[in-house]
Specification:
The protein is of the alpha+beta class and 278 residues long. 20% of the residues lie in helices and 41% in strands.
Length: 278
């Protein structure tokens, strides 16, 4: 039913500043700089082989601007939403109706690229907050228009390796993502030295890494951080340092045959890691 992590949304105060910072982190410029006039928002999109990142800011009046303003006032800049990709949004609507969510209906979306005057169209279906346990999420089916993919070389970010979500109830998370959305649960384990139960869901060469915690302050699920894959971690760190981005020392990752580095600046409150698979 769900085919991909279509994209992730980062709410930002100043779109131009955030765009410049993420261009340094990713190693390439955005492929789309657009506007949603009816929603009152502007965006910059960085596209990868398996997903894309949308930097989103308020630019006028509308439901989108209200959403961004609320996020910034309550939690500050950072990850604020996830879009799950599908090829059959009507089926998901039917499944939601059968679960009693009769207000769930798709709506049409349009984005205009301000630089090239190109237009993209899609269908959205906003997912009930009760189902998603407080996480802002929607299902998207693309109808018209595509995003180009940049050649990032050895030092640029090529794909999303995993996104981390914190939950207070791993069993309920499984009920939604495995049982309802039919996303493959690849692993359910307890990491002994952390003392946390972890779930690993796999789709479109991406991992949803879910960490069960009891100290989040509420019962909501929360997007936490992102890990990005690079072909050459040494070259990536050299490039980032030249760009003025602060990074940690390179170390071996928890997964066998991986090396990782943490990005400590320019990330707009999104915990960010780069990873190289040997």
């Amino acid at each position: 039913m769900i085919d991909s992590i279509d994209h992730l949304i980062i709410a930002v105060e100043n779109l131009e500043n955030a765009e410049s910072n993420y261009q340094k982190i990713f190693g390439f410029p955005p492929v789309w700089q657009g506007e949603h006039e009816k929603l009152g928002t502007r965006n910059s999109i960085f596209n990868f082989s398996n997903t894309y990142i949308e930097l989103l800011s308020a630019s006028g009046r509308g439901a989108g601007a209200d959403f961004v303003s609320k996020v910034l006032s309550t939690q500050g800049e950072g990850l604020c939403g996830i879009a799950l990709g599908t090829r059959n949004i009507e089926k998901i609507k039917t499944e939601l109706w059968q679960k009693g969510f009769v207000d769930a209906s798709p709506s049409k979306g349009e984005g205009v690229n301000q630089k090239e005057n190109k237009v993209r169209h899609w269908k959205n279906l906003y997912l009930p907050v009760e189902l998603m346990r407080g996480l802002f999420a929607f299902v998207i089916e693309h109808v018209e228009g595509e995003l180009p993919i940049k050649d990032v070389g050895a030092s640029g970010v090529s794909k999303l390796d995993h996104v981390v979500i914190n939950t207070t109830d791993a069993d309920k998370f499984i009920e939604v993502y495995r049982d309802f959305f039919q996303i493959r649960l690849a692993l359910d384990t307890v990491i002994e030295h952390w003392g946390h139960r972890m779930l690993f869901f796999r789709l479109n060469k991406t991992t949803l890494e879910v960490v069960e915690k009891s100290d989040t302050g509420n019962n909501d699920d929360r997007l936490w951080g992102l890990a990005w894959e690079v072909k050459n971690l040494d070259a990536a760190c050299e490039r980032l340092i030249l760009e003025g981005v602060e990074v940690s020392n390179i170390k071996n990752g928890l997964k066998k045959d991986t090396r990782v580095v943490t990005i400590k600046s320019h990330n707009h409150n999104v915990p960010t890691m780069l990873i190289q698979h040997s």
